[in-house]
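Field reference: "sequence" (input) and "structure" (output). Example, Pyridoxal phosphate-dependent decarboxylase family protein:
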Amino acid sequence: MPARLPAVPQPATIAPALGARHDTTALLRGATASSYADTVREVADDVAARLSAVTQPFSGAAPSELRALVDAVDLDGPASGTRQALREAGDLYAQHAIWFHEPTYAAHLNCPVALPAVGAETMLAAINTSVDTYDQSTVATFMERRLIEWTAGRIGFAVDGPGTQGGADGVFTSGGTQSNFQALFLAREQARTAGVALESMRILATGVSHFSIAKSALLLGLPDGAVVAVGTDAEGRLSPDSLAQALVDVERAGDTVIAVVATAGTTDRGCIDPLGPVADLCDAVGVWLHLDAAYGCGLLVSPTRRHLLDGIERARSVTVDFHKAFFQPVSSSALVVRERADLAPVAWHADYLNPRANAEPNQVDKSLQTTRRFDALKLWVTLRALGADGIGAMVDAVCDLAAAVHHDLATDRDFRVVGTTDLSTVLFRYEPDGLDPEHANALVPQVRRVLFDSGRALVAKTVVDGRPCLKLTLLNPDATLADIRGVLELVRSAAHGLLAGEALTGIDEPPCRAVHPRLARAEGDAR
């Protein structure tokens, strides 16, 4: 028999030492379910009380005050417990947040949110699903895909169902900027596959297209000047004649148009480009047409204005922002493509996540994100609760309100309306007879600042055709014409006050100085 190897002594097995005992009540689990319910209830009660008490969209606190409040919190200090921490957050954050549900908030593309969606937020936050792979999401994957199919159907794309080669597809994203970026990435990849060099790629878009178009070109490695400006008409809509000329000019320069970007709801004016004529030109030369409908997508469910999107079904890709026009909490956006195969360049496989051999329906295969919230749940619940027609009626309400405000301003001697809108935007200036345009220009940012600092009303400012303008973005279907008239009166009062202040500063000696005992007399005044 062969000699046996000598036994080698083995070290005794010692279990690793456990760290300090943690707080076993800190995490949401079965044992803390009742604490979870109490916590959510307390937060909901606090927010509800604040909602009931709010009388203006902002507290009016100065940036220096808010910074001081934030800096006063010791983030390395001792633990205060869940209840106290949430109370502190309410007094810090909720007390000084911008309340988009207030009818005097009319600044940006922020909407009040649907109650069913807020309920869904509670559910998805607690369960914390990540909709990247099927083994993390299960039914959520199918629910998101069903909503993409529903949206595609509303657009007018053919929907053949999951698992087929043809038909529309898409994915939820964090917002319109990401949706636009992904669409242009897909267009770039199609052009690269066809042998087009990066340095010769061009994107055609108007100067009023969303800034994310130019930013996407930069991030995609396209050269400076890759976004070629297409002319617009007097209302800021893309001019088909200008587009036709731009297509010819790019080709003559030896470059290649990889995408044309049209807009259904420009940020400043809320105007919709002529989708049919633009699609005709794109089809004629075989160019990818991307439609940024982040603002105007609500018309997909409008009972009276859906026709304004006629031609949307001819786009190759469409951006929709449910957190703008469908009254969803941020974030809830999607990119929808007409052909499922167009999403293929996004796919990236990793053995630990989504190996190629995996037959499960993984959403990460068509998303730029990996970990991703189940934001589709909010829209799902809202559709089931209110119905598409119910959402569409709210879209119509804000568009009708904007039309009524336009009519009001057109008959007001102090204000000048700037342009028109297809949606719910109102551009105007305080410019009564006798006030020169340059003076009116200077008042725009001053009026906006006075209103913001007071917290009583929030309006936006922008520049259109070189003219500064005040802007109302009306996305609150519960706001009334009387509410917006109140905002306009605040604008008028602020402008009057600013002009009166300018008049007083131009007087060497205020008229009351000689009679008011508390005002110091001017030096050398013998009276």
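The radius of gyration is 29 Å.
The first strand starts at residue 105 and ends at 106.
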